[in-house]
Design a protein that fits this description.
The protein is an alpha+beta fold. It is 61% helix and 14% strand. It is rod-shaped, with a radius of gyration of 26 Å. The protein starts with 12 loop residues before the first helix and ends with a helix.
């Protein structure tokens, strides 16, 4: 049975091929979404890890500040008691490094839950795609046998 409750054996071959193409496109989109979420999770984890270096012992030390993934500029760590945290949509809040780490942990947990949900949906779509592909093969084989019998 298809996800809409329609018996796939009753669908014409053209509709099955179209359904297969749609499922393949959805799987590709889910894969892209999963990759984006993994990148975000890596960013949150890296940010959380970098907060551990904000200690009074490191105050006034030279650091490299990332402007992009490949461009860093030298700077001095002047403030270690608070950080400016981007909470989204152009809003920033001042937090302690511990508070910022807790925020990053919560964001990381949300992203990991989203990754799991996307993976579950992708698994369902893979199963549907497999069923459609098997039905297409069966119909093609039956049509070939009918053509040979005629």
């Amino acid at each position: 049975m298809a996800s809409g409750g329609v018996d796939m054996q009753q669908l014409p071959l053209e509709q099955l091929v179209q359904l297969k193409d749609e499922l393949s496109a959805e799987l590709e989109q889910l894969g892209n979404s999963s990759q984006q979420l993994r990148i975000a999770a890596g960013g949150y984890a890296a940010t959380k890890q970098s907060l551990t270096s904000l200690t009074p012992a490191n105050k006034d030390k030279e650091v490299l500040i990332p402007l992009t993934e490949s461009l860093y500029v030298p700077g001095t760590l002047a403030e270690v008691e608070t950080v400016l945290l981007d909470i989204g949509t152009g809003y920033y809040v001042e937090k302690s490094p511990v508070g910022a780490g807790e925020f990053m942990s919560r964001k990381l947990e949300l992203v990991q839950e989203s990754i799991k949900r996307v993976a579950d949906i992708a698994q369902q779509k893979r199963q549907q795609l497999e069923m459609v592909t098997m039905t297409i093969q069966q119909k093609a084989q039956a049509a070939q046998q009918a053509g040979q019998a005629a």
